[in-house]
Design brief:
Shape: elongated
Number of strands: 12
Radius of gyration: 37 Å
Number of domains: 2
Helix content: 40-55%
CATH superfamily of the largest domain: Histidine kinase-like ATPase, C-terminal domain
Number of helices: 8
Length: about 350
């Protein structure tokens, strides 16, 4: 028929369309201008339990027990045949007596072979019921996991608070000044992790806003170590950086160590002053610093008794790919942890000599 020049183009096109429907593995239906079935693929008939021999010449809306006669679908297909619209990923529930409803996604496209009076409609149907059920189950599992994670965070935070309270109680009762000092330091380190846990509890993505974290951390350290907050002040000056939890742990411990050192050594004999924790980031470069206006750097090189050679600060900075830099703040001292992305021709910041 295709080789006969007298065969109308519409007939040739219908023949091709019928052949495509016949071999299609997808549930598709070819409809005429009256929304009657010209051909339905075998997969369509199998998927919706329709006898293949009963489809030809019947309106789509009369198939089965009439479950396809949905007003919205009728309107959309009519509009598509008139050229006023196209059905693209339209979702509907197919409801049949004695069977579970199925969620379908339908797409319909008008086919015109040069005969405007006899358009054709190609309707494809995808059953997404099982996929949507799997998505809902996945969402339910994720919600359950999130709830359990939040509960775990609360329990860990509560446990840390209890440990910190016990340490503080023991520190106040300890007869030795040295023992009290160690217990106060340990209390501040535990509170560093507790503050992080609190921030993580409020986060849905395991990320921590550093300004809020540092602020809460410094408030906790100040409450346990600063006897007169009107005389000795501890403040935070940080940007809006949000860091991953593992990075935040290291930064928080560094802040804890540096602030403890400043409180212990920069203000002897009940001297007053200020300690400022600062954090600034630009792209992948960042600087964390703790600055005090205390007794400063008497020998011009290292701050008096700051103890920055401890393995804690050194190893944490190394883990972050950063270096420790000591500067005279005139008065006082500034201890910075600096991270710089490698740039050709730029010398790295000088590291603290241990």
């Amino acid at each position: 028929m295709d080789d006969d020049p007298s065969t109308p183009p519409a007939v040739v096109a219908d023949t091709l369309a019928l052949a495509m429907v016949a071999v299609s593995d997808a549930p598709i239906v070819l409809l005429d201008a009256d929304i009657k079935v010209i051909a339905a693929s075998g997969s369509f008939c199998r998927a919706f339990q329709i006898e293949p021999t009963s489809t030809d010449g019947r309106q789509l809306f009369s198939l089965g027990a009439g479950e396809w006669d949905v007003p919205q679908l009728r309107s959309l297909l009519t509009a598509t045949l008139s050229g006023a619209a196209e059905v693209e990923a339209y979702e509907m529930d197919l409801r049949r007596v004695g069977r579970d409803a199925r969620r379908l996604v339908l797409s319909a496209h008008q086919l015109i072979y040069g005969d405007q009076a006899n358009p054709r409609l190609l309707l494809s149907v995808t059953d997404v019921t099982d996929a949507r059920l799997a998505e809902r189950l996945k969402d339910d599992l994720l919600r359950e996991k999130a709830i359990l994670y939040q509960e775990l965070q609360h329990r860990v935070a509560n446990s840390l608070q209890i440990i910190a309270s016990v340490l503080m109680l023991n520190a106040r009762r300890a007869p030795s000044e040295l023992t009290r000092s160690y217990l106060f330091d340990t209390h501040s380190r535990v509170m560093s992790i507790a503050a992080l846990q609190k921030q993580l509890t409020a986060s849905s993505a395991g990320e921590v806003p550093l300004r809020a974290y540092f602020t809460e951390l410094c408030q906790s350290i100040g409450a346990s170590m600063i006897h007169d907050p009107t005389k000795l002040r501890l403040t935070v000056d940080a940007d809006e950086t949000i860091a991953h939890a593992d990075v935040s742990v290291s930064l928080g411990l560094i802040v804890t160590e540096l602030v403890i050192n400043a409180l212990k050594h920069a203000f002897p004999h009940e001297r007053g002053g200020d300690i400022v924790v600062s954090y600034r980031a630009q792209s992948t470069d960042w600087t964390l610093s703790v600055t005090d206006d205390g007794v400063g750097m008497p020998d011009g090189r290292t701050p008096a008794k700051v103890g920055l050679g401890t393995s804690i600060v050194e190893s944490l900075a190394k883990r972050l790919g950063a270096v420790v830099v000591v500067q005279d703040a005139n008065p006082g001292a500034r201890i910075s942890i600096e991270h710089r992305a490698p740039v050709a021709g730029r010398s790295p910041a000088p590291a603290l000599a241990i």
